[in-house]
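Obj: model holo form, ligand = NAP.
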Amino acid sequence: MEYIILNNGIAMPKLGFGTISQFGEQIIDNVCYALNNGYQLIDTANRYGNEEEVGIGIKKSGVNRETIFLETKLGPTLYENDQAIDDTLNRLNVEYIDLMLLHHPVNNYIYAYKMLEKAYKEGKLKAIGISNFPVEKIQEILDNCEIVPAVMQVECHPYYPAETVRDFLIRHQIALQAWYPLGHGNSDMLNDPVFVNLGKKYHKSTVQIILRWHTQMGFGLVPGSTSFQHIKDNADIFDFTLTHDEMEEIAELNKHKPFYNVTKESLERLATTKCNFEE
Ligand SMILES: NC(=O)c1ccc[n+]([C@@H]2O[C@H](COP(=O)([O-])OP(=O)(O)OC[C@H]3O[C@@H](n4cnc5c(N)ncnc54)[C@H](OP(=O)(O)O)[C@@H]3O)[C@@H](O)[C@H]2O)c1
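Output (holo structure tokens):
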């Protein structure tokens, strides 16, 4: 495993397992399998509606809690709910969370970030951060809050390497963690001839080439998968290194366009859709 040292000194594993859209026995088994097959970081969210099962999967894995990096996100409908972080700890059935993010830059995110800061100071959260924030809203957090976010989770992959926020994050020592690291399985990207050729050279799949690119860019990443084989293969990426010229070749694939389009309607939906445990 490779690690990113966060701006508060904590080591965050670069590779994590993403748990969106998986529920029940499936996510219990996949979390358990991932933790026993090369992963140390699990990423969930209030909004995924699976925190209880993620917690069960962690216990079932038999892996020592101290060696697991557990990450979750506060849902926007809970941004003014002072009980929400304690409720999250209870759902996950853990004493502390390694990293908690604000899921989206909607509703009262300044108040919510201050809730994260309070829980951080109380030791309930080991690091805090944000997700999907544009530069001007990150600046608002920096201007109004005490603690610089440790991590920003954002859509990022070779076809859209998060260039609108990357330099800003580097300047403020905020680690970039990629969601949709495989473009949500986009087949054009997974079959791009550049990755096919590199796969042949390194005896790796195109997916493994893409995941390795992320780590060499210095990004964290949370690929998701419903397949044991894929989960295992996706962790087998640390035994080869893409050359400088190969990284440059991949940089040229940038299409400057995300797969997930943020619109006024989508932001409104994100601001109002409740988590499955809310009334
Ligand atoms: N902060 C946010 O707003 C936000 C938004 C979206 C997602 N996320 C996070 O990002 C994580 C990843 O997102 P995602 O799962 O939608 O996208 P992704 O990781 O980019 O792609 C997942 C897709 O890739 C396929 N895949 C994975 N490994 C493969 C392999 N070795 N070979 C071939 N296909 C493979 C999966 O299919 P199989 O199931 O068949 O393997 C699935 O269709 C989520 O779980 C969540 O934790 C965060």
